[in-house]
Every structure is written in structure tokens, then in C-alpha cells.
Specification:
329 residues, Rossmann fold, three-stranded parallel β-sheet, 15% strand
């Protein structure tokens, strides 16, 4: 831990400590004794299972460096406030916890918050998802052809998409809510597939389907949410996205570090990380596009996210993107 955060904190005697780090997977009696003596101090808990406590900062094992650093930053920011609360005889936990109860959205909504919505049923991303689903169903390449030139050729067996359309054009079209007449979906015949395979080198790029879906979602959202998405409801993040293959967006690692623990509202994430809601909205829509994020169905069960992610009624398009990109994401 010292190697990870030597510029953020140092080990001191108990009497001088502003916060504690406790590994609770060992002797339970030692942990219980510690809790009895130092209940009012900010405590970072390291454990394999989520502790049944509402006044600690939990860092799950195996410990990810970014999660530990985030927890230390949290403790630093609240140490002074915690000390004041302790002197007044109150507990520090309410302001420090990554708690399901705080993340549910059961709080007063901010009437000053401006949230912009868009319809995503006829976007380039929607067509791309439909093409992915079709490619999986027929087990054959499907092409998105653009009126102004170029195409996206989906290769379902390899989980790849061959790109010959200009990025600037693709971005411009992704910004539009309706692209009817500008993009067409075409399934390749056996002969067309053979011909396409011989000219793959002529495409400007070949990338994972998940990377393309993520990129289109980022360009489509631009800090907005699709219609009928409640930012105060809870959503899950099933697991960490493979950021090495994805378009970089602001605060992505920080958002994932906090959110992957349990379902949370998008507004809660924004407030806890002190970042613009628009950045969280974009991350959510991008993660949703590759099957990693969605609505939590049972508000009080933080474990339900994993069940939802693997067995819910997600759209065939999202399942198709996840399927053909499973070895690439």
C-alpha cells in the first residue's frame, strides 16, 4: 500500500492517525476490538466480501490500485470533517460510505440540474446494433453502407468490424437522432462474403465490435441520456471495461472504480466523484452499449447486478454485440 500511495499518506502512531486501514479477513476478534475502540474514525476496509457495515469505505479484494487510491482520497477529504464530528459525539459514516441506501436515488432531486435527452431508436448506433444481431443470426458478415461513401463490415466469426468510412463522417452521423436514407444495412451473400474477404486489406481499419459500439455510443450521447432514462434510479456496472481497447472518455477509470462495487444512481456517482453528470451519462450509455451496464431490478440487493447482467431480458442487439465481441472486450 505504501508503494501505491506514498505521496498521499504515511504510517503514523495510532494517536496521530486521521484514518485507518483494516484487513478484516483475518482474526475477527482483533477487528471487533478495533471497531469498539475506534468506531468514530474514517476506516478503509479491505476484504473479499462486502462487510455488513454502513460506516466504512470498502475496497474489495483482489485490491485494484485505482480503487485503493480513490478510497484514500476519500479519507483525506473527509478526515477533518470526521474529526469535528467525533468531537461533537457523532459518527462519521454517513458522509463517507459507498452505501446502497445512499445510492438508490431516494433523495430530493436537484431542480437546477439540466438533463438533456435524445431518442436512440434510429441512430447509427441503433442500426449498428441491429446489424450485429443480424450477423450473429445468419453467421455471415453484414454491412452498413453510407450514402456519402464507405462502410462498416461486421465480421461475426471474428468479433471484428472492418472500417472504410471516414471518422469525421461517422461522428457527424452519430450526432444525429435519425439517419434514415443516409445509412443502409446489407447482408452479404456467400459470393459477396468471399469477395469481401479478399479485399480486407483495402479497409482503413479493423477493430473489435465492442470498441466500435463503445465509440458510437460516446459520440451519440455527448453527455446526454436516452429518453426515459432516470438518472436518479440505480444502475449496475457488471465489470470493468477493457479500457485499453476503448475510446478514452473523461474520468472513466474513476467512475468504474466506484460503480463496479454495487448498483448506484448516475447522480450519486457524479456527486461522490465531484464530476459533471454529463461525464457519467456518457460512460453509462457507452457501457450499456456493450452489455456492461443496465438498470438494477431490486433496489436493496447490491448483488443483483451480476444476476441481471447475465440473465435478464436485455435486447438481442446488446447480446449480439456482447457475443461477437466476447473475445475482444
Amino acid at each position: 500500500m505504501l508503494e501505491i500511495a506514498d505521496d498521499l499518506c504515511q504510517v503514523v502512531e495510532v494517536q496521530k492517525a486521521q484514518a485507518f486501514v483494516a484487513d478484516i479477513d483475518g482474526d475477527e476478534s482483533v477487528w471487533m476490538e478495533f471497531r469498539a475502540r475506534y468506531r468514530n474514525f474514517p476506516t478503509i476496509v479491505l476484504s473479499r466480501q462486502r462487510p455488513d457495515l454502513d460506516d466504512v469505505i470498502w475496497v474489495p479484494k483482489p485490491i485494484m490500485e485505482v480503487a485503493l487510491i480513490e478510497a484514500i482520497h476519500w479519507a483525506i477529504n473527509h478526515a477533518k470533517e470526521s474529526a469535528n464530528d467525533t468531537m461533537a459525539g457523532s459518527r462519521h459514516g454517513a458522509d463517507m460510505v459507498f452505501s446502497p441506501a445512499l445510492a438508490t436515488g431516494r433523495r430530493d432531486k436537484d431542480s437546477t440540474l439540466k438533463i438533456y435527452n435524445f431518442k436512440d431508436s434510429e441512430t447509427v448506433l441503433a442500426l449498428f446494433r441491429a446489424a450485429c444481431e443480424r450477423a450473429v443470426d445468419v453467421s455471415r458478415p453484414v454491412s452498413l453502407k453510407f450514402k456519402e461513401g464507405g462502410e462498416l463490415l461486421i465480421l461475426p466469426r471474428d468479433g471484428l468490424v472492418a472500417v472504410s468510412v471516414q471518422s469525421t463522417l461517422l461522428m457527424e452521423l452519430a450526432h444525429q437522432e435519425q439517419v434514415q436514407g443516409l445509412v443502409t444495412v446489407h447482408g452479404l451473400s456467400v459470393a459477396e462474403e468471399r469477395a469481401a474477404m479478399t479485399r480486407l486489406e483495402s479497409y482503413s481499419d479493423v477493430e473489435p465490435v465492442t470498441a466500435m459500439s463503445w465509440k458510437l455510443a460516446v459520440w451519440t450521447a455527448r453527455g446526454q441520456l436516452p429518453t426515459n432514462t432516470d438518472p436518479y434510479a440505480r444502475y449496475y456496472l457488471r465489470c470493468w471495461p477493457n479500457f485499453t481497447r476503448l475510446l478514452v472518455i473523461p474520468h472513466a477509470i474513476r467512475i468504474a472504480s466506484l460503480w463496479v462495487r454495487e448498483p448506484m444512481s448516475l447522480i450519486f456517482i457524479s456527486e461522490q466523484l465531484e464530476i459533471a453528470p454529463a461525464d457519467v451519462f456518457t460512460f453509462y450509455y457507452a457501457a450499456k452499449s456493450i452489455g456492461l451496464a443496465g438498470a438494477a431490478k431490486r433496489e436493496d440487493d447490491y448483488l443483483f447486478a451480476n444476476q441481471t447482467a447475465t440473465g435478464d431480458g436485455a435486447s438481442g442487439a446488446r447480446r449480439a454485440v456482447t457475443h461477437i465481441g466476447r473475445d475482444m472486450s
